[in-house]
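Per your request, structure below.
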């Protein structure tokens, strides 16, 4: 009971509080609580068993072993070590592991060994993190010049070492050749034969790597197995039980509720314990009240001092009213749209900075008008620049073995970043005494309602020909959010530091899951050697290439990420930060939807037009659908025209 009170009133295990509440000596409290609490050797804090025995338990076990070796007389360290040994995830044996060629966590020497066997000669492979590029260096022989090379109709032969680079990066070369077009003007067409051959050879190399791994000596297999398990299969999910939370000051009568749902309490406890989360609750489960009580509890417990809730324009008044109803005595700032005019904005920013608000409620648009810290932007650019400098040093040391293209790419990227950094430094100097940015306001936690509105975050990828990859350019709105999140993560030296709330965090794009992790788990992704989308896709996705007829009746290569691999480990990584609940999870009394599909028969006019449209698609006779004859250029898009007419006809 005293432990529950400590968690409710302090948010953590506080032995001083528990001893005062029970009248027992500290040693007796520790003895009585026994396996309910453990001493964390990294920070000397006492933790509940559900906290200590969850998360990256593989890393925690190593820390416990080191502590026991250094301090063998400390029985608490040994108790923690024994408990951690019992909760270790079941190791995934080498035979059951999914591998992709080019995964960044695999030591480079394995790729070099594979390449040496592939080409029958010593091969050096260098990886440049700042460019996320592999460079293969080797000589020439029959395998490189013929077996694994591709010679297009036009241009130079692409040799085996370049094909291997594509295989490592899971890309493919794109070949074209020149023909005479209309009016005698030269045009370039895809060399589909060469493209298809390159895809085939790349696929053979990638499959060959998987087969080669199976033939490795047992020591190498054990090393890869341990590396994989320590990197990805290292988590134990924590069960968050917020039943002990009493939410002092919460006016349940005013809210016309008897109590919060257990799902709301558990989600609030997760946020409190981790300084953030992704709350993926179905509509109707009370996400609004969850973030309100979580914000208030974190403030009450001293975990944060000035939370901000970001909401849609349509919801801001309702959420502000709910907060005031839930906590009538709370000091809330919820500025109206008129308060964000340029003339009033500076005064408002000073109000945010200089007052001890319990919560600040802003719309997404209002938040977008708050300048972000140029220092955090400078730090991000400087880190990139440092990485490039390291890669340049490596490239120069390797000398002639590195192509001019790699060096040129590094130099261009360095110059671009240098320019951006100088501009930013000048802006910092110019704006030193003008205005207030997000970092200076003192906001130390963000609750982002409908966070999927910020999913359009910029990212880089070589897979620009993959269908459904999303918009790589991103939006300024999402970039602004990333800078704010990074500001908080830098302040607390931790992942999360923000709470995203959405009923649809991932809807229809593979990149959406990666971008969630980019926002919320940058440190953990770095530990997994994942620096960008391509690095993430190399680990968790599998790409296929199909050759299909286009709408213009040409054979084209269609690249798609067909499915996820390492799904259990990916699910663990997602669920570590996500509180997912549906109405069924909490037995919410909700009427079932009665669905009835109504099939509407086409009108006689539509039936006649469908027949004519089918004839048009076959013959290209545009007069059948009431338009002028197609030009030769228009005829290439005949099926697009037919689809457009069919869509309009169906809507009539």
């Amino acid at each position: 009971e005293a432990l529950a009170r400590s968690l409710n009133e302090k948010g953590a295990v506080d032995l001083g509080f528990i001893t005062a509440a029970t009248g027992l000596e500290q040693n007796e409290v520790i003895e009585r609580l026994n396996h309910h609490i453990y001493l964390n050797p990294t920070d000397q804090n006492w933790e509940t068993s559900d906290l200590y025995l969850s998360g990256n338990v593989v890393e925690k076990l190593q820390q416990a072993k080191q502590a026991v070796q250094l301090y063998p007389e400390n029985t608490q360290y040994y108790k923690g070590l024994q408990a951690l040994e019992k909760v270790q995830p079941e190791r995934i044996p080498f035979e059951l592991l999914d591998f992709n060629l080019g995964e960044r966590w695999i030591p480079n020497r394995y790729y070099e060994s594979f390449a040496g066997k592939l080409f029958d000669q010593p091969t050096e492979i260098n990886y440049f993190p700042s460019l996320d590029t592999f460079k293969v260096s080797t000589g020439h022989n029959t395998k490189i010049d013929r077996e694994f090379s591709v010679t297009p109709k036009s241009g130079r032969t692409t040799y085996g070492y370049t094909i291997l680079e594509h295989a490592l990066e899971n890309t493919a070369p794109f070949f074209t050749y020149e023909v005479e077009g209309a009016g005698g003007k030269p045009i370039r067409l895809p060399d589909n034969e060469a493209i298809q051959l390159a895809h085939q050879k790349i696929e053979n190399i990638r499959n060959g790597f998987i087969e080669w791994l199976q033939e490795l000596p047992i020591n190498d297999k054990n090393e890869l197995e341990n590396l994989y398990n320590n990197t990805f299969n290292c988590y134990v999910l924590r069960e968050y039980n917020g039943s002990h939370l009493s939410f002092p000051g919460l006016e349940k009568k005013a809210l016309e509720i008897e109590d919060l749902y257990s799902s709301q309490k558990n989600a609030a406890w997760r946020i409190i314990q981790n300084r953030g989360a992704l709350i993926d609750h179905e509509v109707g489960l009370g996400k609004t009240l969850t973030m309100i009580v979580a914000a208030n509890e974190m403030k009450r417990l001293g975990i944060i001092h000035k939370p901000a809730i970001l909401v849609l324009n349509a919801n801001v008044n309702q959420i502000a009213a709910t907060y005031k109803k839930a906590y009538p005595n709370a000091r809330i700032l919820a500025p109206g749209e008129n308060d964000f005019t340029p003339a009033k904005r500076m005064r408002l920013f000073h109000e945010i900075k200089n007052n001890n608000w319990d919560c600040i409620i802003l719309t997404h648009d209002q938040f977008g008008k708050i300048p972000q810290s140029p220092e955090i932007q400078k730090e991000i650019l400087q880190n990139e620049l440092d990485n490039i400098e390291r890669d340049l040093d490596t490239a120069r040391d390797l000398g002639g073995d590195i192509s001019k293209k790699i060096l040129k790419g590094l130099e261009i990227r360095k110059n671009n970043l240098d320019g951006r950094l100088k501009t930013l430094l000048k802006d910092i100097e110019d704006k030193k005494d003008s205005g207030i940015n997000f970092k200076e306001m003192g906001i130390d936690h963000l609750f982002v309602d409908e966070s999927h509105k910020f999913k359009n975050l910029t990212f880089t990828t070589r897979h620009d020909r993959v269908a459904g990859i999303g918009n790589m350019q991103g939006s300024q709105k999402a970039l602004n959010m990333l800078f704010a999140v990074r500001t908080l993560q830098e302040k607390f030296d931790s992942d999360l530091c923000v709470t995203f709330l959405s009923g649809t965090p991932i809807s229809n794009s593979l990149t959406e899951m990666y971008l969630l992790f980019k926002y919320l788990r940058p440190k953990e992704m770095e530990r997994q050697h994942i620096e960008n989308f391509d690095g993430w896709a190399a680990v968790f996705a599998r790409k296929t290439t199909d050759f299909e007829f286009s709408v213009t009746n040409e054979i084209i290569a269609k690249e798609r990420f067909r499915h996820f691999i390492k799904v259990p480990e990916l699910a663990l990584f997602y669920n570590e930060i996500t509180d997912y609940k549906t109405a069924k999870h909490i037995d919410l009394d909700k009427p079932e939807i009665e669905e009835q599909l109504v099939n509407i028969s086409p009108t006689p006019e539509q039936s006649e037009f469908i027949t004519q449209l089918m004839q048009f698609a076959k013959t290209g006779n545009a007069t059948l659908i009431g338009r002028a004859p197609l030009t030769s250029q228009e005829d290439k898009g005949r099926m697009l025209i037919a689809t457009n007419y069919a869509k309009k006809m169906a809507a009539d």
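The chain is about 50% helix and 10% strand.

Regards,
D.
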